[in-house]
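Quick one: structure tokens for this chain, please?
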Amino acid sequence: MATPQAVSVSPRTSSHSSGAHTTDTASPQAVQQTMAGFVPPTVALLRTADRLATAPAYNVRTDSGWQSTSWQAYGAEVRLAARALLALNVRHGQAVAVLSFNCPQWAVTGFAAMAIGAMPAGIYWTSSTADVEHILRHSQAPVMVIDDAERLRRLSAMLSEIPGLEHIVLLKGSADGLSCGQKRVWDWSAFLDLATTVPESALQYRMGQLKAEDLGTLIYTSGTTGPAKAVALSQGNLWWTATTMQSTFAVDHRDRMISYLPLAHIAEQMGSMHNQAHAGFQVFYARSLEELGDHLKEVHPTVFFGVPRVWEKMQSAIETKLSEATGVKAVMARWALRVGRAWHAQDLAGKPVGPWLSLQKMLAQHLIYQKVQAALGFDQARLLTSGAAPIAPESLAFFTGLNLVIRELYGQSEACGPSTLSLPGLTRIGSVGQALPGTDIRVAEDGELMVRGPHIFQGYLGQTAATAEALDNGWLRTGDLGHIDEDGFVYITGRKKDLIITSGGKNISPANIEAALMDTHLIEHAVVVGDRRNYLSALVSLDQAAVSAYARQHRLQGDAMTHPEVMKAVQADIDRVNERQARVAQIRKFALLPQALTIEGGELTPTMKVKRKVVIERHQALVDALYQD
């Protein structure tokens, strides 16, 4: 396939340092002006539903295949759900809690809530009972939408004690025989039937009263040091970001994307809800994270957003197959990888590629690339992106060897998702791109990146002090360290709060070191430690599939995960990473974690980022042992 394409934009003037010029595109006055054309998100969705009518809007995987639903039916269900919420007396400014794996009803509930001036409060499906209770009590949601009866039974004792929660709506199955204290339990069809008691005119009136400053969604951060904070994003924040993304990328009803990241996360809400509402592309709801690989080959998405761990898993699987290849196949594969990397290195640097390299790339496309892309499900993809956590530049370079350009973007929940974008003609491996059109980014004196624009959140709900700490005269303190080059490309060097200060007084950001370690063949997750110590060490978990393949290839006997030869290979990988680091940032020792890190175990966020502090605290004895000498 051709290199992923999108509408190109010209480089923008940006703040390159704390003392550099800052554009006025995102000043408070400019922000007010940008909201002049505000269209409520639900209204944008309904307009697209009217425009595309019988075209497919979303698809659900069943045992018999993918079942599609039209835009017309999607819009009608949103209207019914909005009127049903009115029937349950949901008021303007209230929250509607949603706890479910991704499904159309999640999006329907979200748009229905926004239609009446309320807002969804998403809860990750991996949340503990304590986390669910915190969000329900904090949001004061009178209605909760929950996935199935099994989940309801597990949470019933806690839910029955939540003050203010009056109604529970079951997405799957019947509510017959189900109870939850004094709360009323509805199944989805009975909930929608409530719409018959509320006239359409009542819904139209509520939508007509919507303003840009009305809250549109609550994003609960997956905090590791205390209860999650509620990022309050306005309907104007959501509309402006979706409008800007639509004007930047040429995406329309002919495109396809898979919804698999939690809808409680802003990245997924922007992608499969708000961006879709503007562009009209089809959304395919994954049945589970475990089936994502199969879904990719079934759907052949044209647009795909992957978190680093997804790309790293794909890379590891490909590298494992390459290591097992022999003869002509092995030679051809390595040649194609070299050609792809060389061609894209020139192209991304803006240098002429030359006819000989281009000819080789065309041949490699026919012989190698198209087969690998089809096996991954990316043979029709034209826009591949990575975000939510750092990804090693080496990993991005690896995929260019397959003629797949993955473009990094950067953002946070407090900025409604994206703050930077990498676009065709404006992509540099190692950079997260340039500022989103209409926004400003600058670097504070201590190296922290600060962002200003119409997408910046309204604050943390009910937490004035935390909001004041995050915002500085309209500028969002991102908590990320980085720099901006003379062309406006942004580079992230780490998290301010994760900074390691060695006993020698050296400040080291572990994020990029960890990304490089996780880009190696055998290491799945890595946590760099060394605060107040005289050298750095790493806690690592291994990729079981990669280790098994290595053991087969080298005919190892016994437990492969702890085999001495595997440990030597891991050390060799770490040594290669060390070669690219300053001496003070090199890993001197490593220790294997006793088990894999998981979302369910609480060591990974729902978007598969490692919770460093949790891992270190749980394995403090292992850390101490690395420094006993």
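Residues 327-348 form the longest helix (22 residues).
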